[in-house]
Specification:
By secondary structure, the chain is an all-alpha fold. It has one domain. Helices cover about 55% and strands about 0% of the residues. The chain contains 2 helices and no strands. The radius of gyration is 16 Å and the shape is elongated.
Length: about 45
């Protein structure tokens, strides 16, 4: 979504009137489970 032209234009426009506007990455549905799996794999490397 953040790569779409519409999003980039809206972000640019909002940045003109909002101080310190930021965008964060987020996941939903199965994407959350995938990220948790990656986290578990990485954490397991420290055992």
């Amino acid at each position: 979504m953040t790569a779409s032209e519409e999003f980039q234009r809206l972000h640019l426009r909002a940045g003109m009137v909002v101080e310190d506007l930021g965008i964060i990455q987020a996941f939903e549905d199965d994407g959350v489970l995938t990220q948790l799996g990656y986290f578990g794999d990485a954490a397991g490397e420290f055992d």
